[in-house]
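Below is one record:
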Amino acid sequence: RAVSMDREALRAWIADRPEIAEQLLRVLARRLRRTNNNLADLIFTDVPGRVAKQLLQLAQRFGTQEGGALRVTHD
């Protein structure tokens, strides 16, 4: 569900709810870190390295441990 509000209404709403402000900061900081990491990868890592890194991240996020390997399935 989406809500639309102007800047001042949003500021007032956040001011009354410090936990929301803290959560917003966490989300924005996470997005900034991810963007910085992606930019660094684009600048300093070649294509095979970027693909390998992405596969490792997907395996860690969605994979299951089987013996000495991570299994990633798709549906």
Q: What stands out?
A: The radius of gyration is 19 Å. The first strand starts at residue 64 and ends at 66.
